[in-house]
Amino acid sequence: MITKTDFSGRTVMITGASGNLGGAVVKKFYKSGSQLILFDRQPDSIKLNMPEIVSYPERFLLSEVDVTNPGSIEQAVIESLEWSGHIDILVNTVGGFYSGKSLHETPVDKLDFMIKLNLYSVFLLCRQVIPIMIDQSFGKIVNIAARPGLKGSSNSAVYSASKSGVIRLTESMAAELKHKGINVNCVIPGTIDTPQNRKSMPDADYSRWVNPNQIADVILFLTSDEASAINGAAIPVYGRS
C-alpha cells in the first residue's frame, strides 16, 4: 500500500536531506509525487548525490540551513512558504550521536551538542511550521527519536536525554494539535544500516539492522491519509536487532 501512496499536491519539508536517512526519505517522497523543501548544511552534496531529483528544479527548493539557529530557520521557512504557498508535511531527520563516557566524565559541550542537534532543532522547526499548518487546518509532522530515548543506559546519558526529549515534545505537540487537523508522531529506529555504523561496528550482524529505506517507508505511511488516526505515537522500527 505504501508504494502506491500518492503525495501529488503535497509540499514536504525535510531536514538533514543529505544524510543517510534524510536521503532515503527525500527519494521516497519524490517518487510519490510531492514537492520537496530540502534543508541541509551541505546542500551541494544533494546536488551531487541525487541527480534524478535536481534534474527537475520545479519539484524542489534547496536551502542551506543551520537547524540550531532560530534566525536561519525563520528565514528559510519564510522563503519556503513564498515558494510553495503551503507546507503540508515536516520530517525532522537531523540528528547526531554521542556515547562512550559516564555522565561525570562527559564534557559539558557534548550535552550542549546533543540537546541542540537532536532536541532544539525539532523544537525550532516545529515552532516555525506549526502556525502555517494551523492556518491550513492540515499538517503532518514526523520526528526521529531513538531507542535509548525510551530507557537510559550507561555511557550514553546525554544522547538518551536528548532523544527522550524528542518523544516528549512529540507527545505534547500531538496533544495540542489533535483538534486542529495536524498529526504529530515520531519514529524510533534501531541500529541503522549505514556505512558509518558498519565502520564503527565491523563485527556486527548487519542483516539484523534496519535499512534507511525501511524507516522511510514508515515515515511515508505516517504522513499519508491512511495514518490519519495515528497521533502522538512513538513507532519502533528496530529491524531484527
Characteristics of this structure?
Rossmann fold, globular, alpha/beta, 8 helices, 241 residues, 7 strands
Strand order of the largest sheet: 3-2-1-4-5-6-7
Q: How large a portion of the residues is in β-strands, by DSSP E?
A: 15-25%
CATH superfamily: NAD(P)-binding Rossmann-like Domain
Shape-level CATH architecture = 3-Layer(aba) Sandwich
SSE string: EHEHHEHEHEHEHHE
Instruction: Kindly report the CATH topology.
Output: Rossmann fold
- Tell me the number of helical segments per DSSP (H or I, 4 or more residues long): 8
Largest beta-sheet characterization: 7 strands, parallel
Short recap of the structure:
This protein has helices spanning 20-31, 43-49, 51-54, 70-84, 108-136, 157-177, 195-200, 212-222; strands at residues 11-15, 35-40, 60-64, 89-92, 139-144, 182-189, 234-237.
Structure description:
With 241 residues, the protein is an alpha/beta fold. The protein has a single domain (2-237), classed as NAD(P)-binding Rossmann-like Domain (Rossmann fold, 3-Layer(aba) Sandwich), CATH 3.40.50. The chain is 44% helix and 16% strand. The chain is built from eight helices and seven strands, in the order βαβααβαβαβαβααβ. It has helices at residues 20-31, 43-49, 51-54, 70-84, 108-136, 157-177, 195-200, 212-222; strands at 11-15, 35-40, 60-64, 89-92, 139-144, 182-189, 234-237. The chain has a seven-stranded parallel beta sheet, with helices on both faces. Helix 1 (20-31) packs across helix 8 (212-222), helix 4 (70-84) runs parallel beside helix 5 and helix 5 (108-136) packs parallel to helix 6. The longest helix is centred in the middle third of the chain and has 29 residues, at 108-136. The radius of gyration is 17 Å and the shape is globular. The mean pLDDT is 93.
